[in-house]
Amino acid sequence: MPPKKDPNAPKRPLTAFMSYSMKRRPELRELNPDWAFGEFGKALGAEWALMSDIAKAPYVQAAERDQGRYRMEMSTYIPPPDYGQYDAPASRKKSKDPNAPKKNMSAYMFFSNKRRPELKAQNPDWGFGQFGKNIGAEWGQMNDMDKAPYTHMAAQDTNRYQMQMASYVPPPMDYGPGPTKKAKKDPNAPKRPVSAFMFFSQARRPQLREQNPDWGFGQFGKTLGAEWGLMNDIARSPYAAQAAADQQRYRAEMAQYMPGGNF
Questions:
Q1: End-to-end CA distance of the chain, in Å?
Q2: Closest Cα partner for 39 from 52, 49, 28, 50?
Q3: What percent of the chain has pLDDT over 90?
Q4: Contacts of 107 (CB under 8 A, 6+ apart)
Q5: When comparing pLDDT for 227 and 82, which is higher?
Q6: Where do the domains of the chain lie?
Q7: How confident is the model at residue 183 (pLDDT cuts 50, 70, 90)?
Q8: Stretch 93-103: mean pLDDT, rounded?
Q9: How confident is the model at residue 254 (pLDDT cuts 50, 70, 90)?
């Protein structure tokens, strides 16, 4: 039996193409009343593929606004306990490891976290959805230069998350009701490839440690992530080349790898 759907859950965001389809389909139906359903889809898809970026821009902006609305509504949405579950038997939900790295935030969320308190102070009588719509509309109208500070913060936060995840080891017990059996690791399996950021981190961390012997582990991670976020493609290229070579090494080894019988 499929899971129940909460009727009060936030409505899924529309894509740019769907926004265009909702506007264009009635016009095509009026012009071609004898068309079958599939013919409308083909015509809409063909028209969309031939449209320029300028022609698509209003629908892209509408999709960005709707995406912002959805993210804001989902950020505070709490589903009822009986929704999203199968009637029988009830599935056990896996709890979140409290020590796991915090998920990285998008550029839009950084902007939203800054803008929402300002709007709330200016409009104390607004409902929750009104904030989401206005923030999404503002974001959709911003150009790349306006978005740059938030894009930069998002890039730094992504680096922070990737670095923390690289050294994160989940607990052997499955968080949730009851333990699960952890799969054994084959000691002969090929070593996972190292990312460009990790190659940079391995080269830079000893230098930072020598310069700052009193720093804690987290301080190194923040500094490395900040430095990586400010580096351009030319500065990153040596580490990207190392990562590409290591990726090839991993693929070649995996092509010949045969797992051990008990692993």
A1: 35
A2: 28
A3: 5
A4: 147, 150, 151, 153, 154
A5: 227
A6: 192-257
A7: low
A8: 74
A9: confident
Identity of the residue numbered 95? S
The residue type of 55 is A
Architecture field, domain 192-257: Orthogonal Bundle (1.10)
H, E, C per residue of the chain: CCCCCCCCCCCCCCCHHHHHHHHHHHHHHHHCCCCCHHHHHHHHHHHHHHCCHHHHHHHHHHHHHHHHHHHHHHHHCCCCCCCCCCCCCCCCCCCCCCCCCCCCCCHHHHHHHHHHHHHHHHCCCCCHHHHHHHHHHHHHHCCHHHHHHHHHHHHHHHHHHHHHHHHCCCCCCCCCCCCCCCCCCCCCCCCCCCCHHHHHHHHHHHHHHHHCCCCCHHHHHHHHHHHHHHCCHHHHHHHHHHHHHHHHHHHHHHHHCCCCCCC
> How many beta carbons lie within 10 A of that of residue 16, not counting itself?
19
Q: pLDDT over 70 for what percent of the chain?
A: 82
By the 8 A CB rule, do 112 and 89 touch? no
How many angstroms separate the CA atoms of 236 and 197, rounded? 8
Question: Could you give the CA distance from residue 216 to residue 198 in angstroms, rounded to a whole number?
Answer: 18
Model confidence at 211, pLDDT cuts 50, 70, 90, reads very high
Q: Which pLDDT belongs to residue 41? A: 82
C-alpha–C-alpha distance, residues 260 and 188, integer Å: 8
